[in-house]
Design goal:
alpha/beta; 16 helices; 21 strands; 26% helix; globular; binds 1-deoxynojirimycin; binds calcium ion
Length: 565
């Protein structure tokens, strides 16, 4: 395998036809920087702790920039590091224009950003726009009296007799309304009671929040990941949501969130935000939970004037290695008209390593999944630790749960601690994350699953990620090529071509536990080649060139090869 990886690097160097500068505004295809960038999500509490208080911080991230650069990452999305009471671990912001002392200072942020810039890495901030913390001065003012100047910055309503204003439930459990006894009205919160929803119908809220984005653009950030965009607006008439059969995991009635999510006004705000982003060569990534590609399409905007990168979570719903299902999802998003965005997991979603792993071949499967989302037409957003095969480590006792939804929904809902455990850097105590007590326990497997050990192992998941990222940055077909599904009736092997002019890359992914053999006729795609030039394979028996009419595949293996005319 070692020899093979060395050979792989040489193949890439010989084959690549272009290497693009990260600062170039548009490439020959009119693509912008974010279309060729690989994004990497950092959950700052868990990435690297520089001052040994057990909580990751900005200086910790800065100390790992060389690692991120060598991995092949172009942009970091840092989840909220603003001042916050941390009820929802930062998604409850009490000051949008500062850094929480537990993560550092604005000066640390500037240094981090400068260090990243020197390495050609951009920083994307998380914009929590639906709600603030109940400790934000805006809300403190708003709740102080019915006549406060900020009263209408949040959603205050009278109850119906002694009951809540309507039947809306919080997605984190219980009613979405909390009574404030001092002023005798209810306020609305789609999430925790400590996360009151801002009233986006109020132009003053709109202006203040837009100023926040300008403030960060001036500081140099390259865009935002927009939190919970679906929930920005609510029905002014507060109509009851339709009730569905059954109870959810918190014991509340199931509801269709008809009147409190995805209201058309969201798109007006997104169009406005896009104008400001465009003035700053910035990208907007959306946390967009959509039931299908038709819904996803709406977030690009009718005139491609809303989000450049609405996240497609549909992959995260394919919970088994099913070539037909992946083919269907890829085809749908590829033809949606916007630039596809691929996500396998994040700080709210069980890690892909366990979602797709079968318990016996998880390493091979992790490489297979990496090869899938890093070779498709579109932008991948990685989640920290995915590149070393970090797994979920869920709490086993309710008293150990940190994430409040895990305490409320236990045992059905264990919360999100499991996918947020500290990054595993090496085999020293606490995986080198901290010399203090880590805020979440470090999984014991860190002794072998860690960056330092995997860097030394040529066939590790980490080295496959590094090879894939190097390839996708340098290979013209992977950067700009079309996606063409191949062998569409194959139930076991997912294959496709990325075609750019006279070049193409063939990607073959055996999603089954059995050896397979595949053959390709690429004449309809304009390629009469009989062999492919191997760029990357996870097979033990890989060779420099492979026959297209007879390509044997080991279980869960990957073959990526170049074909030319
Ligand atoms: C989505 C974030 O990803 C999640 O972690 C958070 O709890 C909610 N939005 C509320 O902000
Ligand atoms: Ca710290």
């Amino acid at each position: 395998m070692c020899r093979k990886l060395v050979a792989f690097v040489l193949f890439v160097a010989g084959f690549c036809s272009t290497v693009r500068s990260q600062t170039q505004a548009l490439d020959a295809e009119g693509h912008q920087w974010w279309q060729h960038a690989v994004f990497y999500e950092i959950y700052p509490r868990s990435f690297m702790d520089s001052n040994n208080d057990g909580i990751g911080d900005l200086n910790g991230i800065a100390s790992k920039l060389d690692y991120l650069k060598s991995l092949g990452v172009d942009a970091l999305w840092i989840t909220p590091c603003y001042p916050s009471p941390q009820v929802d671990f930062g998604y409850d912001v009490s000051d949008y224009e500062n850094i929480d002392p537990m993560y550092g200072t604005l000066a640390d942020f500037d240094r981090l950003q400068q260090g990243a810039k020197t390495r050609g890495i951009r920083i994307i901030m998380d914009f929590v726009m639906n709600h603030s913390s109940d400790q934000h001065p805006w809300f403190i003012d708003s709740r102080s009296s019915r006549t406060s100047a900020k009263r209408d910055w949040y959603m205050w309503h009278d109850g119906k007799g002694s009951a809540e204003p309507n039947n809306w439930v919080s997605t984190f459990g219980g009613s979405a309304w909390t009574m404030d006894f001092k002023t005798g009205q209810y306020y609305y919160h789609y999430f925790y009671p400590q996360q009151p929803d801002l009233n986006w119908h109020n132009p003053a809220v709109h202006d203040a929040m837009f100023d926040v984005t300008r403030w960060w653009y001036k500081r140099g950030v390259a865009g935002f990941r927009l939190d919970a965009v679906d929930t920005l607006f609510e029905d002014p008439e507060l109509r009851d949501n339709p009730v569905l059969p059954g109870l959810n995991k918190y014991g509340d009635p199931n509801e269709q969130d008809l009147y409190n999510t995805k209201l058309p006004e969201v798109h007006v705000v997104l169009r406005d935000l896009r104008k400001v982003a465009d003035e700053n060569n910035a990208v907007l990534i959306g946390e967009t939970w959509t039931k299908d590609v038709n819904e996803l399409k709406q977030y690009y905007g009718d005139h491609s004037d809303e989000l450049q990168m609405p996240m497609d979570f549909l992959f995260t719903k394919v919970d088994r290695l099913s070539p037909p299902e992946f083919r269907r999802q890829i085809a749908a998003v590829d033809s949606a008209g916007g630039w596809p965005v691929f996500v396998l997991s994040n700080h709210d979603i069980v890690r892909s390593y366990v979602r797709y792993g079968d318990g016996q071949n998880n390493q091979a499967i992790a490489k297979l999944m990496a090869s899938l989302y890093l070779t498709l037409r579109g932008t991948p957003i990685m989640y920290y630790g995915e590149e070393i095969g970090m797994q979920n480590t869920d709490p086993v006792r309710k008293e150990d749960v940190k994430d409040p939804i895990g305490r409320m929904g236990w045992p059905q809902e264990k919360g999100r601690d499991g996918e947020r455990t500290p990054m595993q850097w090496d085999d020293s105590p606490n995986a080198g994350f901290t010399r203090g007590t880590p805020w979440l326990p470090v999984p014991l497997i860190y002794k072998t699953v860690n960056v330092a050990s995997e860097l030394k192992d040529p066939s590790s998941i980490l080295n496959v990620y590094r090879s894939l990222l190097a390839l996708r940055h340098q290979n013209r077909a992977l950067l700009d090529g079309d996606y063409i599904a191949l062998n569409e009736n194959d139930p076991n092997v997912l294959s496709y071509l990325r075609r750019y002019k006279n070049e193409a890359v063939l990607v073959v992914l055996n999603m089954s536990s059995k050896p397979q053999q595949v053959s390709f006729d690429l004449a309809p795609q304009g390629f009469d080649a009989k062999t492919a030039h191997t760029l990357l394979t996870t097979m033990a028996a890989g060779s420099k060139a492979s026959s297209l009419s007879h390509l044997p595949l080991e279980p869960f293996s990957v073959y990526i090869g170049a074909v030319s005319k």
